[in-house]
Amino acid sequence: MKNIKYHLVSGACGFVGRNMVKRILKVTNDKIFIVDDLSIGTHPSTWLENYTSRRYRDIEVIGEDERLYFREGDFRNLLFYLRNNPKYIQQEYGIEFDKFADVYHFAAIVGGRAKIEGDPMVVALDLSIDAEFFYWVCQHQPERVLYPSSSAAYPVNLQSSSGAVSLKETDIDFSKNLGTPDMTYGWSKLTGEYLALIAAQHYGVSVACIRPFSGYGEDQDLSYPVPAIAARAARKEDPFEVWGKGTQGRDFVHIDDVIDFTMMLLDNIHDGSAYNIGSGKLTSFLDLIKVFTGFAGYNPTIKPLLDKPVGVFSRYANMEYVENKFGWKPKVSLREGMRRVYDKAVELLREQKR
């Protein structure tokens, strides 16, 4: 087992983190140290097949092959210990490795529009999480680092009803004046991108950044719009409520494509630069409702909720640079991906009725 590597995934129990963990377990024989405080994510027992574990000190060693180590808690606490003792994990848990190979940093205060606008100061804690993270990364020097930014980092003036454009990577240029991102979440991700560039350029860390647009999938929490709308369609709600007028649009990209793109990007990008991951298509929430109610076989009355937060009017990716540079395109179509989400919603509804 000389080729076994150790990876680190922060925020590993959230939507993107757990899908990344499952992918690493599937395509490698490596071991993974995962951290999550479970404030948003769910325990590994809820998303790993054939779950078994044993307790060792304050971690769970998961699986019969013991490839997964889970530490529950604030990622910043672990970073504090590592800052004081770079070999803390090896010494505390008896895990023998030199340094982490790949580090995936998903730990963040995240949520839907209600969270971003309703509690912006708690979202601003992402600034402290990322600062601690990159400080440690520059000391630890892992082989590769993945920093997930967000489409929220793009200037909001490019996403209005009067000036909506497909957002391209060059719309964020740290050598020029920057536009205003989307609230504290956008500011934190924009700052994280800048720290990634510093880590790469000044400390020689291999870093790649992704800017995901509206990622979705079958196991996403109901606090997000796609699974929530699917569940309401499965229940055949009528009238069908929509936040705002429903004309606001997003670029929906399936989690399978996000993970595929991330793995490809880590192999090719090392300088801290950021790349879009989206479908390159704008879909309004009214159109999304039509897709799901079409699956459900009914045509409800739409009831706008004008007192609900809706965010920017239009946010979608320009994928030309990614396609030209890497020859990469998302594989899961909107209809196929949303069908998967709807089928999962129907399955959960049946289980609730039993």
What is the helical fraction, as a range of percent? 25-40%
Fraction in beta strands: 15-25%
CATH architecture name of the largest domain: 3-Layer(aba) Sandwich
Structural class: alpha/beta
- Unreliable runs: none
Look at the structure and give the mean pLDDT.
94
Tell me the name of the CATH class of the largest domain.
Alpha Beta
| Main beta sheet | 9 strands, mixed
Q: For this entry, what is the oligomeric state of its chains?
A: single chain
**Tally of separate domains:** 2
The number of E-state strands comes to 17
Please explain how this structure is put together.
The chain has 354 residues and is an alpha/beta fold. The protein folds into 2 domains: 6-216 and 252-277, 3-Layer(aba) Sandwich (Rossmann fold), CATH 3.40.50; 225-250 and 281-314 and 332-353, Alpha-Beta Complex (UDP-galactose 4-epimerase, domain 1), CATH 3.90.25.10. The chain has helices at 15-27, 75-84, 88-93, 113-118, 120-123, 126-140, 183-203, 225-234, 255-268, 285-296, 320-326, 334-353; strands spanning 6-10, 31-36, 53-56, 59-62, 68-72, 102-105, 144-148, 166-167, 207-212, 214-216, 240-243, 249-250, 252-254, 271-277, 283-284, 302-305, 314-317. Strands 3-4-5-2-1-6-7-9-14 form a 9-stranded mixed sheet. Strands 8-17-12-15 form a 4-stranded mixed sheet. Strands 10-13 form a two-stranded parallel sheet. Helix 8 (225-234) packs across helix 12. It is globular and about 60 Å long. The N and C termini lie far apart (47 Å). The mean pLDDT is 94.
